[in-house]
Amino acid sequence: MRDKILFVDDDTNLLQSIQRNFRRSYECAVAADADEALKILESGDRFSVVVADYRMPGNNGIDFLRKSMERFPDTIRIMLTGYADMETALKAINQSRVFSFLQKPFDTGDLKTVLEEASKEHHRIQRIHMDSLTDPLTGLYNRRFIEREYARLMELARRQDSRLAVVFADIDNFKEVNDRYGHSAGDLLLSAIAETLAGTIRGSDLLCRYGGDEFVILMDSADIEHAHRLSERIVENVSALCIREMQDMNFSISLGQSAFPQDGETMNELLIQADKRMYMHKVQH
Question: What end-to-end distance do the CA atoms of the chain give, in Å?
Fold first, then answer.
């Protein structure tokens, strides 16, 4: 997958030239001013790098890059400037943590080198973040990641007047597996359930191991009915699960659902409601 790069400059000829030269290497988006650029960043697409001119209509590049840093801290920032003074450089570094500068006029080779370095830095940061945001046993996202992503998805749902659903899942009789077969078997079951869940959800859904034998699924642009239908497929797929080391076990999973906005607005409110419904499902079955 190619990195997405946003170029912000009021020089339309420059933007067209950049698109021609780099569209094979990157997914390029362009904006003529800061307001347009922020709308693009907030559209939900994840950009690896933002390249902005120091001078632009209605806003200077430092202010724009500072705002983009506050809202999208993982995006690498590059500034274009026709002014090579140290004061501008220090201000940009202090206020918006600019990764690199490129003085106008520049040639394509210089920009290519800077973009390659910025892309490598973005992927290095992403690897560090992923190590802290994934569960080492299952390879799924962890609780920290899902809580961070919920805030982003909630803001997007509010802005677009769309829905957001949560599915809370708990493996049935997990303690029995650990008691009968040992904790290594429990780990094997967790990994198998994680793989089953990952193979059942939509490509746009976010799945995490929330803790112990609990999993959470965030469903963007989905209502409670979508969550119920997904839950039915999960129950069916888990019941068909066969693990060689535990062939005499029948596996099942209990699930509860909730949705924004009717069941709450915060992550905690939706999880509490989904957890209650999950418990009711477990008691009834």
Answer: 44
Average pLDDT, the chain: 89
Are the beta carbons of 5 and 50 closer than 8 angstroms? yes
Q: Is 131 a catalytic residue?
A: no
Quick one: 152 exposed, middle or buried, by C-beta within 10 A (0-12, 13-18, 19+)?
middle
- 256 backbone dihedrals φ, ψ, rounded to 5°: -130, 155
Q: Is the pLDDT assigned to residue 239 strictly greater than 80?
A: yes
- Euclidean distance between CA atoms 233 and 229, whole angstroms: 7
**Contact between 74 and 130 (Cβ < 8 Å):** no
With b for 16 or more beta-carbon neighbours within 10 A and e for fewer, the 256-276 pattern comes to bbbbbeebbeebeebbbbbbe
Domains by residue range for the chain, with CATH: 4-133 (3.40.50.2300), 141-284 (3.30.70.270)
pTM over 0.90: no
Between 34 and 93, the higher pLDDT residue? 34
The single residue of 205, 213, 220, 263 carrying the catalytic annotation is 213
Task: For residue 234, report the phi and psi dihedrals to the nearest 5 degrees.
Answer: -65, -45
